Amino acid sequence: MKLKKQWIALAVSMALAQTAWAQDDSDRFTLSGFGTVGVAHSSERNADVRPDFQASTGVGASDRTSFNLDSRIAVQLNANFTDNLTGVLQAVSEHGVESEYSPKISLAHVKYRFTSNFSARLGRITAPLYMLSEYQRVGYAMPWARPPIEVYDYLLAMDGVDAVYNFHAGDAVIGLQGFYGRIDSKKSDVNAFRGVALNVDAGASSFRISHIRGTVNYATKDINALFDAYESLPIPPLVDYAKMLDPRGVDGKFSGIGYSYDPGKWFMRTEVIQADYGAAIIGKATSGYLSAGMRVGDFTPSLTVAHVDSPNPEAPGALDPLGLLNAAVLSQRSSRHSYGAALRWDVHSNVAVKFQANHVKNHAGSFGGLGNQQPGFVPGRGYNLVSASVDFVF
User: Fold this and answer.
1) Local confidence band at 80 (pLDDT 50, 70, 90 cut-offs)
2) How far is residue 67's CA from residue 40's CA, in Å, rounded to a whole number?
3) 350-374 pLDDT tens trace
4) Rounded distance, CA 153 to CA 150, Å?
5) How large is the C-alpha radius of gyration of the chain?
6) Residues contacting residue 269 through CB under 8 Å, at least 6 positions apart
7) For residue 26, what pLDDT band results from cuts at 50, 70 and 90?
8) Beta-strand (E) ranges in the chain?
9) What is the distance between the alpha carbons of residues 132 and 210, in angstroms, rounded to a whole number?
10) Domains and CATH numbers, the chain
11) Burial, 174: exposed, middle or buried (Cβ in 10 Å; 0-12, 13-18, 19+)?
12) What's the sign of the alpha-carbon dihedral 226, 362, 387, 275?
């Protein structure tokens, strides 16, 4: 019943947006949307592959075969108030971090174009972490069933402001972006989220480099209980160690660099990111992928390799007589590599069917970013993930 009400709420939102669009003869409002109906199957029985590192469940231990990893639907209302002032309102229903399909406002901002080269947005904006951030949710815009989760494991919006200045240098278009805001989520808030990015488009080539900083507050019921308990123990060295590992209120930084080449008949894309949270339990991770494919009529086969290197902080070892902090540190180890093959079939001008198979090998002792670990889960074990999806836009 709860899920039914959520879908009804989304349908009502769509109807209201459609009414506003239809009643304005000047085409001030336009309605669009996108969605994915995807099913995935994991060979790992004792842990879940998750759609976002903050999500609790996904596919695997919860359900060997599930629609929750990739399925979503979104509607977007675009408003053209003047030639220079526009607005966007987007609602999306997906399993994600909340582990339910309750519709959420994913975008809600206005944009003002000061000159032909300079514009700014204010409101809820996609956090500009990756090359594909602006359409990370739009499966139809990508050749894979999902972007490589070794890199694209964070899918949240920023409430704040950004500004972009574009200029030409020969045949290249260069964009300088600056942004500031806050990310408010179920498990990981980021205050003073600020950064800069450089984008270069020249013919078939695109390049992006970015650097971001912020104060991260990664907190769950379990994390609060663990660190509150350890930081109150009458063992000063262990208390100091726990405070060093505490992920609540950590200064973090995030850097990324990416390049794509797409002349039409084939494409190549690669991206490397690094997230660094110092000595906190969430540690430091470097990840990247390389993907290449070719277009043959309505079909686009592609191959992808990806890697995560996550040398998390050392566990307290013998300093921890209870063993709970040791276990928490070990569970954060996510080093792994993966190999994937995908096939996209464009069956219609706005519909694509995709098939994908991935083999993931967790490094020795690594939990591989998997969640919802159950008794019998073995760190370092590999698994297979197969997926099929239908992506559409309207």
Assistant:
1) very high
2) 6
3) 999 999 999 999 999 999 999 999 9
4) 6
5) 22
6) 131, 258, 259, 260, 261, 262, 290, 291, 292
7) low
8) 29-42, 48-49, 59-60, 65-66, 72-80, 85-94, 104-113, 118-126, 157-169, 172-183, 188-202, 205-218, 248-261, 266-276, 284-294, 299-309, 336-348, 351-362, 383-393
9) 13
10) 38-72+125-393 (2.40.160)
11) middle
12) positive
pLDDT computed for residue 144 by the predictor: 98
Cβ atoms < 10 Å from Cβ of 118: 14
Query: What is the bridge-based pairing of β-strands 299-309 and 284-294?
Result: antiparallel
Does the pLDDT at position 2 exceed 90?
Answer: no
Show Cβ contacts of residue 162 under 8 Å, excluding neighbours closer than 6 positions: 120, 121, 125, 128, 177, 178, 179, 180, 181
Residue 168 tokens, joined: 């030409």
More confident residue, 95 or 356: 356
Single-letter amino acid code for the residue at 361: K
Q: Which residues pair with 78 in a beta bridge?
A: 30, 88
Our measurement of the distance from residue 90's CA atom to the centroid of its chain's CA atoms, rounded to an integer in Å, reads: 17
β-strands 48-49, 118-126: how paired?
Answer: unpaired
> What pLDDT does residue 104 have?
92
> Would you state the pLDDT for residue 366?
95
Token reading at 42: 């994991």
Q: Report which of 224, 217, 286 is spatially closest to residue 250, judged by C-alpha positions.
A: 217
- For the chain, how many residues are written? 394
Residues 6+ apart with CB under 8 A from 13: 75, 91, 103
| Assigned token pair, 262 | 């797409």
What span, in angstroms and rounded, lies between the C-alpha atoms of 165 and 174?
8
